[in-house]
Automatic annotation (TrEMBL):
InterPro entries: Glyco_trans_9, LPS_LOS_Heptosyltrfase. Keywords: Glycosyltransferase, Transferase. This is Glycosyl transferase family protein. The gene is rfaF. Pfam families: Glyco_transf_9 (PF01075). Its EC number is 2.-.-.-. GO terms for molecular function: ADP-heptose-lipopolysaccharide heptosyltransferase activity. It comes from Acetobacter ghanensis.
Amino acid sequence: MRILFITATRLGDAVLSTGILNALLQQWPKARITVACGPVAAGLFRHMPGLDQVLVMRKRTYDRHWLDLWKACVPTRWDMTVDLRGSIITFFLRSGRRLVMRGGRRPGRRVEHLGAVLGLSPAPLPTVWLNAADQQVAARIIPPSSSSAPIIALGPTANWSGKIWPTAHYAPLWQQLAAAYPSARPAIFYGPGPQEAALAQPVLEALPHAIDAGGRFELTETAAMLARCALYIGNDSGLMHLAAAAGTPTLGLFGPSRASEYAPSGRVTRWVEAPGPEGHAPIAALSVERVASAALALLRETQP
């Protein structure tokens, strides 16, 4: 059984697609799967069972990246092709069953749209595939979390400035969390590159006892670190979806992005939205008090 799975360029969408990918693996445990995705998401699949290869789609002018993908895939006779990008490429490949997700934005949860591609309702939850080395790295960076001394992950970055809750809010947020959990410790998560580091730096400076858990880790190592945390609080971003997929209780912060479409999907997830019309609310209007109240409620719910 050979399956071609074409998923998203952006990390968050790729994480959401892991649920249906895992469902395929459960249905065909001996399948050999080729994943096509963008470079940011490629590391997500490196420990996936049944992985044949990851084809990294690097955007080129005039959509030539699709031609590159076709050239890489056309020699193979596929038993199934799953295209979550809504392209026509699978119709130019030798394929048995073809499953193509309709392109464009639609109302409703993205994860449910993905599940519908396989006829699954409710949609399977996203997942992450880790190995022992990932767990070892995570154990070196993130100490054990306990109900009296929880490790609380903070994700102050995002790929669009409109999604970013003001970094100045994290210090007063932590004061409220620490008042309830004096032995709690923050861990700051962010992605690679100077832009992510610059967004995280004010939070690291404001919370000098924080664990620096960003910028230099593989995606699966980051997922393993998130799994060791008692709670994740962060903007609507790929890291938010990764935390939820790792099983970490997750609180998503939403402003102009739509929680009705991209709320975190995981074992225990919640979200808070800035006041105003969905899709147009300024995230700076989301108060520290509201975030702290939701975070503390989630901690009380999940800590033994």
